[in-house]
Write a structure and sequence with these properties.
Shape: globular
Bound molecules: pyridoxal-5'-phosphate
Low-confidence stretches: none
Strand content: 5-15%
CATH topology of the largest domain: Aspartate Aminotransferase, domain 2
Distance between the termini: 52 Å
Strand order of the largest sheet: 2-8-7-6-5-3-4
Number of strands: 14
Largest sheet: 7 strands, mixed
CATH architecture of the largest domain: 3-Layer(aba) Sandwich
Radius of gyration: 21 Å
CATH class of the largest domain: Alpha Beta
Length: 394
């Protein structure tokens, strides 16, 4: 009998984590690798949040919390949803989890049956397809391109819907393209969905605050979508709290209760100290973390201007998150020291080995013509990395 389950054998390793591991290995060999592969702010968690965690330790928060989160944290989340998104939720509609990643895994676990189709506009966040597959669902990729700023159009959505469609999952601002759906664009998608009342939406809004454009719109803001949208959010990105592991959902009550049940058998409540700190984070005005977003914008403009100077890098203008997603198919078929670059994976590996810059293969996000470059790095690192990339592709 085989040792490992088909389930795990069929699962892809997270490409972003795999690239980070490879970069670490090369660093261990003494190579000066610039890491632009991970999706994590390079800022420290703000002091006012750290102090709240220290206070929680001193106040002896050391017991299991309620599975779906402390009541005070749910209240802070409800306040945040109202203040930032004009969304009204009750405590029974909120579930706090160990990162938005667990929120997504919970949703898949409680909603997907074998053969259910989940529409994923491409490029999508690296874990969506594998979380869906792990739960016997079928990811249905909808290809988008730079011409539509990597956004799915209403007619593409319509064409992807079948009698087996259960859900649509998307992120806005998008990881990896940085694209942000406008209100009109979301409304156009909603207009298609209202004709198919059994389809639910996962609106992943974890980059909500890292938005350089007209501002954030939540799918659940539309009255006719509220009852079938699960709004996913978390503190990893905007508050520089990736390692604290707190995410949450606002969802129809039936779905929230099911997520609570699922989590109760798997992890119980999220880390109690982190939960206490997040109460403070969410009760503050988002303006407390605006300094990070301002800096990300400066870096976005910097990296775009540097990349636009390299022949063969075709980029959109990301309106949010902290990634650029250039199409680099110009380089396919080119050979270096006997090795031919056939796809984005080869290209990303070439950049790692020759330029000592870690990026991620766009294939992991459903688009093998692109690579993802994170600009959650200092301006000096960005300048040096793009200089190295320019040298090795010229
Ligand atoms: C679009 C998207 N959703 C969810 C997550 C997971 O975030 P968390 O750290 O809260 O698990 C990430 C993290 O990279 C992300 O980019």
């Amino acid at each position: 009998m085989q040792l490992l389950s088909d389930r795990i054998l069929n699962m892809a390793t997270s490409a972003t984590l795999a690239m980070a591991a490879k970069a670490r290995e090369l660093r261990g060999e003494g190579k000066d690798i610039i890491g632009l592969s991970l999706g994590e702010p390079d800022f420290n968690t703000p002091d006012f949040i750290k102090e709240a965690a220290i206070q929680a330790i001193n106040d002896n928060y050391n017991s299991y919390s309620p599975v779906d989160g402390y009541g005070e944290l749910k209240d802070a989340i409800i306040t945040k949803f109202k203040r930032d998104n004009n969304l009204t939720y009750t405590p029974a509609q909120i579930v706090v989890s160990t990162g938005a990643k667990q929120s997504l895994a919970n949703i898949a676990g409680v909603m997907i049956n074998e053969g259910d189709e989940v529409i994923l506009p491409c490029p999508y966040w690296v874990s969506y397809a594998d979380i869906v597959k792990l739960n016997d669902g079928v990811p249905v990729e909808v290809k988008t391109s730079i011409d539509t700023d990597f956004k799915m159009t209403a007619s593409q959505l319509e064409a992807a819907i079948t009698p087996n469609t259960k859900m649509l999952w998307f992120s806005s601002p998008c990881n990896p393209s940085g694209s942000v759906y406008s209100k009109d664009e979301l409304r156009a998608l909603a207009d298609v969905l209202v004709k198919h009342p059994n389809i639910y939406v996962v609106s992943d809004e974890i980059y909500e605050h890292i938005n350089y454009g007209e501002g954030h719109v939540s799918m659940a803001e539309f009255d006719d979508m509220y009852d079938r949208t699960i709004t996913v959010n978390g503190v990893s990105k905007a508050f520089a709290m990736t390692g604290w592991r707190i995410g949450y959902i606002g969802a129809p009550e039936k779905i929230a209760r099911a997520c609570n049940k699922m989590q109760g058998q798997i992890t119980s409540g999220a880390n109690c100290i982190a939960q206490r700190a997040v109460i403070t984070a969410l009760n503050e005005s988002p303006s407390r973390v605006q300094y990070m977003i301002d800096e990300f914008k400066v870096r976005r403009d910097l990296i775009l201007s540097l990349l636009n100077d390299i022949e063969g890098f075709n980029t959109n203008t990301p309106e949010g998150a902290f990634y650029v997603f250039p199409n680099i198919s110009h380089f396919f078929g080119k050979t270096f020291r006997g090795t031919t670059i056939n796809n984005a994976s080869d290209f990303s590996m070439y950049l790692l080995e020759e330029a000592l810059v870690a990026t991620v293969d766009g294939g992991a996000f459903g688009n093998p013509d692109c690579i993802r470059i994170s600009y959650a790095a200092s301006q000096e690192q960005i300048i040096e990395a793009i200089k190295r990339i320019k040298e090795v592709v010229s």
